[in-house]
Specification:
It contains 14 helices and ten strands. With 437 residues, it is an alpha/beta fold. It folds into two domains: 119 residues, no CATH class; 297 residues, Alpha/Beta hydrolase fold, catalytic domain (Rossmann fold, 3-Layer(aba) Sandwich). Strand 9, helix 13 and strand 10 form a beta-alpha-beta unit. The chain is globular.
């Protein structure tokens, strides 16, 4: 078993950890307390709770992590640090075995809090994804990969495709190293999703999605793969081939890590050239895809969504479809001063020119003819919902066919990602020739 693929949101593992933490709390609390030892334990608990509160307040005032931390993060961290402080304070006057249990309990409490906070966000489904480790194996790509011309308008893929006997029920996922030939960007391995229809001997050329995840985040194909497996099950195994590319670089899983802001810069490398040139060239050379921008989608979530609309607006000749899930209004919007200084060297005009609304406004007439764009955000995510509406209105104004959708009851978390992808592909499946309109 690959431990990094252990499910940490669904399944028995997180509940086993929660139960272990609860048992340890009972063991630490139930003992014959002497006044001095109890005093130290209670002081330790208070100090732990205060540290958690201070960090939470600082994070929300400074926005060091981009977005404010939710109350759930304070609750989990406060409980874990208070329990840890109680355990360490209780070392005073304890028997040897209790000291051992107390010391071992601390990492269990901290790990429990990490699982609880991760469950609230509902974004990292596996143990590896929490620590920025893929846990997926390098994917063996099918032989004979090549691009193909688009089908005729009256012979879309779903009309000519027949699922062969023995076709897998679900797609396959893995990783591939995409060389940064033109950009030199220090990217992590990309996640790859191949749908069931791509796995047979006579697989058809399929549409392509280039997806980017949030910051912090990993180029993990789990979320989009889960959604497309459901679509494939309803459409004879048909779904796009997906590359989940890394637009962040090697520190992309670090909550306080630097954000390249979807741009080429001396500080963070050529993220823009990597996605728009290196990833595109690799896809054409290694995947059995339709070589036509009408069948290509640039997609992203959160930070990646900001990149998706930016690249889609800047390069309409590369892809005619955009899927922006809970995306930023513009790359670097959460750290404007830092982005201006570190990415654009203080050049305000260059920063303004990089924003997708500006790009669309300055594009020549007709540049976006035939383009489809989907913008989604959680209904309980006001900042990103406002960005979604603003970008959708501008995209509509320049001639794109636009859908703007709010995922009911979702914040800036996993349900917004899943719901946004589901809505997006409901719109895009007929556009990509994978289903009837």
């Amino acid at each position: 078993m690959n431990i990094w693929q252990l499910q940490v949101i669904d399944g028995p593992f997180p509940w086993a950890v929660y139960a272990l933490a609860a048992v340890l709390v009972v063991i630490l609390v139930v003992r014959r307390w002497r006044r001095r030892a109890l005093r130290w334990a209670l002081v330790g608990a208070v100090i732990g709770g205060l540290i958690a509160t201070a960090v939470w307040v600082y994070a929300n005032v400074s926005l060091v992590f981009g977005d404010p931390l939710p109350l759930a993060a304070l609750a989990w961290a406060g409980a874990a640090l208070a329990a840890s402080g109680f355990a360490l304070g209780g070392l005073v006057g304890a028997r040897v075995w209790r000291r051992i249990v107390s010391i071992l309990a601390v990492p269990v409490f901290l790990f429990t809090a990490m699982l609880g906070i991760n469950d609230w966000y509902d974004l990292n489904p596996t143990l590896g994804s929490i620590f920025g480790i893929s846990g997926l194996n390098e994917l063996d790509l099918p032989d004979g990969a090549s691009t193909a011309a688009a089908p005729a308008p009256d012979a879309q893929i779903y009309q000519t495709w027949q699922a062969p006997a023995g076709m897998p029920a679900k797609g396959t996922r893995g990783t591939q190293k995409i060389p940064a030939t033109a950009s030199g960007f220090d990217a992590r391995d990309a996640g790859i999703y191949l749908p069931p229809a791509a796995l047979g001997a006579d697989a058809p050329a399929l549409p392509l999605v280039i997806m980017m995840m949030g910051q912090p985040g990993n180029p993990d194909p789990t979320a989009i793969g889960d959604v497309l497996d459901e679509f494939a099950a309803q459409h004879d195994g048909l779904a796009p081939i997906v590359i989940v590319a890394d637009q962040l670089g090697q520190d992309g899983a670090d909550p306080a890590g630097n954000d390249p802001a979807c741009a080429d810069s001396q500080g963070f490398g050529n993220a823009r050239t990597y996605i728009t040139t290196d990833v595109v060239a690799w896809a054409k050379q290694n995947l059995h895809i339709i070589d036509d921008p009408r069948y290509w989608v640039i997609a992203g979530y959160s930070n990646g969504g900001g990149c998706a609309i930016t690249y889609g607006a800047a390069f309409p000749e590369k892809w005619k479809n955009i899927l922006d899930v809970s995306g930023e209004e513009f790359p670097g919007s959460e750290r404007v001063d830092q982005t201006l200084a570190t990415v654009y060297g203080g050049d305000q005009s260059a920063f303004e020119a990089s924003k997708p609304v500006t790009i669309m406004q300055k594009a020549p007439a007709g540049a976006y003819r035939g383009m489809t764009a989907v913008f989604t955000a959680g209904s309980d995510d006001p900042g990103f919902s406002a960005a979604s509406v603003k970008l959708a209105d501008q995209a509509k104004a320049v001639g794109m066919t636009v859908t703007q959708y709010e995922v009911p009851g979702a914040g800036h978390t996993g349900p917004a990602l899943a719901g946004g992808l589901e809505e997006g592909f409901s719109v895009l499946y007929p556009v990509l020739g994978l289903s009837a309109g």
